[in-house]
Specification:
Layout lengths: L31 E7 L5 E8 L5 E7 L2 E3 L8 E3 L5 E7 L5 E7 L5 E8 L5 E7 L2 E3 L8 E3 L5 E7 L5 E7 L6 E7 L5 E7 L3 E2 L8 E2 L5 E7 L5 E7 L4 E9 L5 E12 L8 E14 L5 E5 L16 E3 L5 E7 L2 E3 L8 E3 L5 E7 L5 E7 L6 E7 L5 E8 L1 E3 L8 E3 L6 E8 L5 E9 L6 E9 L5 E8 L1 E3 L8 E3 L7 E7 L6 E2 L7 E4 L6 E18 L5 E16 L6 E9 L2 E9 L1
Antiparallel strand pairs: 1-40, 2-3, 3-6, 4-5, 6-7, 8-9, 9-12, 10-11, 12-13, 14-15, 15-18, 16-17, 18-19, 20-21, 21-22, 22-23, 24-25, 25-28, 26-27, 28-29, 30-31, 31-34, 32-33, 34-35, 35-38, 36-37, 37-40, 38-39, 41-42, 42-43, 43-44, 43-45, 45-46
């Protein structure tokens, strides 16, 4: 079914005397701009995406075989040297090819994280085996593993030219799992390691000695010099998966922990003991010293996690988390109790904590099967964007509304992208779904926002998927039916007005989201019409009466950010919908 908004789109809301209760409401959707395929006969997996100050897009990931990385009419073939090689691809804001290069030896490499600084320099981390030349140009900078897979961090300029690369590791396998640039321009890296390792690539020595599988957090200058390195560990296992920072350069790390672990990397001790794999959120100050740690999902015997624990912080220091969970869990890390139970095998939860780690809210999204989240980013205004995959039919509105996305079958996998405001209320949900009967699998891997607030999304799929399930389909097909290929797509950051009607005459309110003023346009000329805006509790916050004609302006009072319900009554006709206050 076409799920784009149009003036003829019909909704039915049941409006009790006291408050509105939404019934089966489709959320507005952002405008589709473009989608490009990263296609090859063997697997192509984009794992990271970022944009620069000019709006250019850099994608990083891994691939096998031979792949043409030019999504336009030209050809830029690259062939992997080993089982998996790392690729980098740069496009302009319109999705046109700028450059691409690859890294790899005869063994296997994996890109886990990538970040860009304000000058467009590219910083990456991951793991590699064997020997790899990290200089894609005429020079040579080979790094060799010390035993199992080793950690690497590297820097390239905005043209893809080599700047520096370092490796860390010992006898067993180690990995860098995420990388982030803080407000001061320093490079934060998180990962896991199993042997005594020197994290200072220079003349100094900064050896961290783990108990088993432990987590490192390290800060480097833009030139690659060590600022500090910290370890969290103990007799149990702790895996750090994601790192970010706030406006004051405090550091946040998420991951999972099992058994006994000391989360204070300094001289103090802050031990936590769990019997199962549990999510954790750790906060350090800018010097890498302990602030707090919480288990945001509580203790649950059957919890299951993938290797994505995205975390973001807003300008006020509030922290946002996105995880998968199953069974039941208490999501209040404090003294209170907020228990949620998954609807299916695994559900998604979104959570907000204050700057001290205190509970603010938690939201749940999930259907009767498996629904997973892979990435979360936070805008300057505190809006959350998340992506991942879902099965069957899932309501992505955690509030009273119903915004169903359908993967075209209970056993098929759809890709979702959703936006929520800082209160956890749904702004919109967007789905990418299969378009044929081939073996279907799709996943949204990562997101970023460009300078204009447009959203870039990357992921992988097999078969044929429709990336614009609106009026004009945009289909991409994997080269081999059951082999995953990659995609990058761009959605418009600002929403066009939505138009919903029970009678067939369209009424549009825009911009949406809005600040203080709304414009109202009607396809049919209104005669003594009335606009009513209510909050989600049903309280009237604005009325505009005696509307005649087609175009109007509504100057709203100062109201909190959030989702509001509008109703336009024109004689026997009624138009209803949702609007969002920034």
């Amino acid at each position: 079914m076409n799920s784009m908004w149009s003036p003829a789109r019909r909704l039915t809301w049941i409006i009790p005397a006291i408050f509105f209760m939404l019934q089966n409401v489709n959320a507005q959707r952002p405008d589709f701009l473009w989608a490009k395929g990263l296609l090859g006969a063997e697997q192509v997996t984009p794992t990271a995406v970022a944009t620069d100050a000019l709006g250019n897009v850099v994608i990083g990931g891994v691939y096998s075989g031979t792949v043409d990385f030019n999504p336009g009419s030209g050809v830029t073939n690259m062939t992997a040297n080993g089982y998996d090689d790392i690729f980098f691809l740069k496009l302009n804001g319109s999705g046109e090819f700028l450059w691409a290069f690859s890294l790899g030896g005869e063994s296997s490499e994996y890109l886990e994280g990538m970040a860009l600084d304000p000058q467009g320099n590219i910083y990456v981390t991951g793991h590699y085996s064997g020997e790899v030349d990290f200089d894609p140009g005429q020079g040579v900078h080979k790094l060799a593993e010390n035993g199992g897979a080793d950690i690497f961090i590297a820097k390239y300029n905005s043209s893809g030219a080599y700047q520096w690369a370092h490796s860390f590791g010992n006898e067993y396998s180690d990995a860098g799992t995420h990388i982030h640039i803080d407000k001061a321009g320093n490079v934060l890296v998180v990962g896991e390691f199993q042997d005594p390792t020197d994290f200072d690539p220079g003349a100094g020595v900064a050896i961290l000695d783990p108990f088993g599988m432990d987590t490192f957090i390290a800060k480097y200058t833009p030139a690659g010099a060590l600022v500090w390195a910290r370890m969290i560990g103990g007799t149990g296992n702790v895996n750090g998966y994601h790192v970010t920072s706030d406006a004051r350069n405090n550091v946040y790390v998420t991951g999972r922990v099992r058994n006994k672990v000391d989360f204070d990397p300094g001289p103090g001790t802050h031990e936590i003991t769990t019997t199962n794999n549990e999510a954790f959120l750790l906060k350090l100050n800018a010097d890498g010293l302990f602030k707090y740690v919480v288990l945001p999902g509580g203790s649950v015997t059957s919890k299951n996690f993938n290797n994505h624990r995205p975390v973001g912080a807003d300008k006020d220091g509030s922290v946002y988390l996105a995880y998968d969970f199953k069974s039941s869990a208490d999501f209040n890390p404090g003294t209170g109790t907020v228990t949620l139970t998954s609807n299916g095998f695994e559900d998604i939860f979104l959570q907000k904590l204050d700057s001290l780690g205190n509970f603010i809210w938690v939201k749940q999204v999930g259907g009767s099967s498996t629904d997973l989240v892979n990435d979360l980013i936070v805008s300057e205004s505190g809006d959350l964007f998340v992506t991942g995959r879902f099965n069957g039919t899932v309501d992505f509105d955690p509030g009273p509304g119903v915004v169903n996305l359908n993967a075209n079958g209970d056993w098929n996998t759809g890709i979702y992208i959703a936006r929520y405001n800082k209160n956890g209320e749904l702004v919109w949900a967007y789905d990418v779904k299969r378009n044929d009967d081939t073996w279907p699998y799709g996943d949204g891997n990562a997101l970023c926002l460009d300078k204009d607030g447009n959203l870039l999304a990357i992921g992988e799929f097999s078969g044929t998927y429709n990336f614009n399930p609106g009026n004009t389909s945009v289909l991409l097909s994997s080269v081999t039916e059951n082999v995953l290929n990659g995609f990058v797509m761009k959605l418009k950051g600002t929403l066009s007005g939505m138009s919903i009607t029970e009678s067939g005459s369209g009424v549009i309110l825009f911009p949406n989201p809005f600040n203080d003023q709304l414009e109202i346009r009607s396809v049919e000329s209104l005669k003594d019409a009335r606009l009513t805006i209510r909050n989600l509790s049903g309280q009237i916050i604005y009325i505009k009466s005696s509307m005649y004609g087609n175009n109007f302006v509504a100057d709203l009072p100062v109201i909190p950010a959030g989702i509001y319900l509008f109703e336009v009554v024109n004689g026997s006709q009624r138009s209803t919908g949702k609007i969002v206050k920034n």
